[in-house]
User: Fold this.
Amino acid sequence: MRKIMAWLVISWGLLVVLFLGFLDINFRDKTQRSDYVTAFYVAGHLVADGEQQDLYPPKGARSFKNAPFVVQARRILPCMLPG
Assistant:
């Protein structure tokens, strides 16, 4: 019984990973619209490239519309939705 349960858990985990990989590869325009990708991936990319100054809007900014982070996010993720 434990072997069957272990096999089922491993199979389920592998299926989930394969499914997420399939979605990421075949529906890149859709996956680039998720909060995780638009916030955490872009921030990590900026830090890795030494562009930490673009993480936050300039002092006194009233909108995020043309903030450096948004501009960089659109450069890194070209399929990101406008707005």
